[in-house]
Amino acid sequence: MKVLVRGSTYLRWVYLLLGAALVLAFILVDTGLVALVGELHLPRVLTGILDALVVIGPPVLLGMLPAVREVEGIAVESLLGVRFEERPLGPARSWPQRRRTTVWFCLHLAAGGCAGILTTAVFGFGAVLLAAPFREHGSHELAPGIQYDVTGSWRDLWMPLAALAGIALVFVISAAIGALLAHWAPRMLGPTPAERIELLERRTATLAERNRLARELHDSVGHALSLVTIQAAAARKLLATDPAFAETALAAMETSARAALADLDHVLGLLRDDRRPGSQTAPQATLGDVARLVDSTRAGGITVAVHRSGDLDQLPAAVSREAYRIVQEGLTNAIRHAGRPADEVEVELSISLDTTGLQLKLTNPVTGLSDHSGGGRGLAGIRERVAVLRGTVEAGLVADGWRLAVTLPVAVTTKG
Amino acid sequence: MTVDISVVVVDDEPLIRSGLRAIIDAEPDLTVVGEAADGAEVLPVVRRTRPDVVLMDVRMPAVDGIHATKLLLDGLDPAPRVLVVTTFENDDYVYDALRAGASGFLLKRTPPDDIIAAIRTVAGSDSLLFPEAIRALALAHMTEQPAGLDGFQLTEREQEVLRLMAKGLSNAEIAGELILGVQTIKTHVANLLSKLGARDRTQAVILAYESGFVPLR
User: A–B: how many Cβ contacts below 8 A?
Assistant: First the structure.
């Protein structure tokens, strides 16, 4: 009888009683409605159908509410001790999920109803039987038609013993039903294989995003600390001979340390916020800044012809940011693989946004392939970014050189 | 320290450039003769100023330090010594830069006196800069099947010299070790560099590690 000393037994019983309480509420409604249906004096079959609808309708309609999955999830987790993959279990998001939740809800009601009846009966009769040996001698009625005799001798002992056994049985049965429900709960309330894949994909995307944020933080804080180190070293050297430089250096250190702290604060905030990973990243370059990137590339003697089409302001900020980085890495690759002096390199860049998504095309001449045999790190970086956004990458030799083509799916709405 | 050393500083961050310039210019024998903000600007600046040493940032927006190093070393004769400057020690690009012909690398967090010493070492070009760090980098980038150096037909003497170079010994120290004249060692070094097709000691030592000629462990 280990079941009786386990805490989970009583939690499961409480879960069933919750169902019983709901059943009681439904019964109160049902009795009134069934009485009304009776007054319609319809043919018997029709009355039967209406009665069934009155009984089944409310729990089914209630079970369809998305929030029921959330509530049942909490109850099942805390009272039945089930651990769901998705935590906490959210409201139902699809019709199949709603249907399965409804079935579960009805199952909860049915099991709760049975357990409720059993509990009421056993506790009711049990109290009477427990008290029996102390009652007046003679015949008593337990329930209509069920008599028992109080004799005042040891033969009365069966009555309290039977009561205790009955109460124990309630908990054993509750534990068994609860175990069965706990076994089914993940299948009924938890995600289906398809939903599980979606969940995993979402989690992977979140992780990739977090990884990237962490990497960027590492880079930006490392950069700021390097700057502070070098400026501090320089200031220390020139403190006596050039105090004006030392002062400028101190100001620069202050500014960059402050900016690094702000960045740290911001990114750590994002990493801590589980619900909206990367929803607002630090003000980083977006496609709007491509002109500046192209200018700085031109300053290096590389000609970049840019073609733009579509309203790029419509792009979600995250896509625009990633697109900028892809262009940046693409340009770097283009220059690296050009295999000739920088001033002879002509790169063609086209950025277009339409209903099929955002297209980035970068074409550059290639002559000396031997130049960087270990290349492709930049391309790997691009593939990584594109994968996170579920886009496609094509890269390879074409007639007029090396061509990088990236498509990013975009739902064009107003900028959020 | 009678010969003045001229330096060009390349970094996309102006404050890093000004800091390095101040540290370097504070030394009587060192002078910063030019600056560049991107790898793409390096070649013209170096052509104009003809420095002994270029301090080259690895990560820059348009043309990175590896490619700029290659441009410099392929495009100029004599080429300046390149000292790659980086924020992080485990930066993959550092090894690429060394293979591309950079003579050594510096962390941005290196104390100023060590930065100065590194510039002087590289300019003097008589011994390997940070031999331990180069060994560690080679270890991290070890290939599966070392091919050996048999194809290069080094004499036994040259092999001995190469082993000692990997330990970071200068020509004079190698001469002492092998009981030979410094001039003889210089000839051996020149011969083995040309046999290996290496630009300088750093490249030769990396080749020695990568080929398995000098064991990494």
Answer: 96
